[in-house]
Design brief:
The protein is an alpha/beta fold and 208 residues long. Helix content is 47%, strand content 12%. Strands 3-2-4-1-5 form a 5-stranded mixed β-sheet. Helix 2 (31-43) crosses helix 3 (58-71), helix 4 packs across helix 5 (106-114) and helix 6 packs across helix 9 (192-203).
Length: 208
């Protein structure tokens, strides 16, 4: 058995373009984001996709629509769940990142953005995001892969970083160095042994 998991971060959003903290704010794609999503779909043309998962936020859903249209995989089941939403930036959402650094200091903003367990005011840490993404992946998404279905997930920079951290078994320091580009498909290929390894790792963690 061999199955594929495709991960795509949404295309550039209007607030990505404006260098603002977005988080759970429901902001759509920029023109560049539409182009990125379209190109991502073209890259997946010829791949079989059996089911897709996305977040409740419009920038991810719009990206998914464009990916499916341009990959030729329209008509497949689509599951929308808030577990795949971006990390919440709480009180920082809507603020310009440079202005925020000027107000609180670059070091403090860097900690809020890049530490694994420190939460921004009123928001989530990457650890919090990990703790909602991974159980959802294991309980809801992985069974489709175990049933030999190829899966597409269109989500967000931090929700996908959490998933990549788990799949690649990265340390907290390693995931802080990992960037997920907008509109660029990442492809993982799993066999039964590698899926069983994920099950075993999840079963031995405190998240199970």
């Amino acid at each position: 058995m061999s199955v594929k998991l495709f991960l795509i971060r949404h295309g550039q959003s209007l607030w990505n373009l404006e260098n603002r903290f977005t988080g759970w704010k429901d902001i759509d794609l920029s023109e560049k984001g539409v182009q990125e999503a379209t190109e991502a779909g073209k890259e997946l043309r010829g791949e079989q996709i059996d089911i897709a998962f996305t977040s409740t936020l419009i920038r991810a859903q719009h990206t998914l629509d464009l990916v499916l249209q341009n990959s030729g995989e329209t008509g497949i089941p689509v599951v929308i769940n808030k577990a795949l939403n971006e990390r919440s930036y709480g009180d920082l959402e809507g603020l310009n990142k440079a202005d925020t650094a000027a107000q609180y200091g670059e070091a403090q903003v860097h900690i809020w953005r890049r530490s694994f367990s420190t939460r921004p005011p009123g928001g989530e840490s990457l650890e919090d995001t990990y703790n909602r993404v991974i159980p959802y992946f294991m309980h809801t998404i992985l069974p489709h892969m175990e049933a030999a279905e190829n899966v597409l997930i269109v989500a967000h920079g931090n929700s996908l970083r959490a998933l990549v951290m788990f799949i690649d078994n990265l340390t907290q320091d390693e995931i802080l160095q990992r960037e997920i580009a907008t509109g660029f498909p990442l492809t993982y290929i799993f066999n039964r042994a590698s899926i069983d390894a994920l099950r075993a790792r999840f079963g031995s963690s405190t998240l199970a």
